Amino acid sequence: MPKGRKGGHKGRARQYTSPEEIDAQLQAEKQKAREEEEQEEGGDGAAGDPKKEKKPLDSDESEDEDDDCQQKRKGVEGLIDIENPNRVAQTTKKVTQLDLDGPKELSRREREEIEKQKAKERYMKMHLAGKTEQAKADLARLAIIRKQREEAARKKEEERKAKDDATLSGKRMQALSLNK
């Protein structure tokens, strides 16, 4: 970049839209959507003005109820009716309708976690009873260690007795030599 210039090439040609232009664009899009919707509704009837088919105000069904029942469909949804078995409609329940006493279905992760805990408990009971491979190996190792410790204790006892005998015999010799 030459020394004399400040700034880069990235901000030179930026143009910002004013809020009024944005509002005008949004209104134009809404108007276009309304016209398309009216054409879809009026397209099924006789060839005429799409705005002419208005419902009378004193009829039993109002426009609000129709909008609630039939949501605006996007893309090809309006042409094809598809029932998706995986899609669950969200239903809200009142507090009085909730059933807290009934059995609660657990998720897969919760079921697996509970099964894992139960398996661990079963293994610990078997291990304490000495029925598992690891418990048998531990008990065998403990038996070997006990034998080694008993042998080491016997050897110490024998060495202590031998030492005591040696000191007693040494004291007797001294006592005999003093008596002479």
Automatic annotation (TrEMBL):
Residues making up the signal peptide according to the UniProt record: none
GO cellular component terms listed in the entry, alphabetical order: cytosol; plasma membrane
Positions with biased composition (Basic residues): 1-13
Region annotation Disordered: where it falls in the sequence: 1-116, 150-180
Xref: InterPro entries: Casein_kinase_sb_PP28 (IPR019380), HAP28 (IPR039876)
PANTHER family: 28 KDA HEAT- AND ACID-STABLE PHOSPHOPROTEIN PDGF-ASSOCIATED PROTEIN
Protein name: PDGFA associated protein 1
Organism: Oryctolagus cuniculus
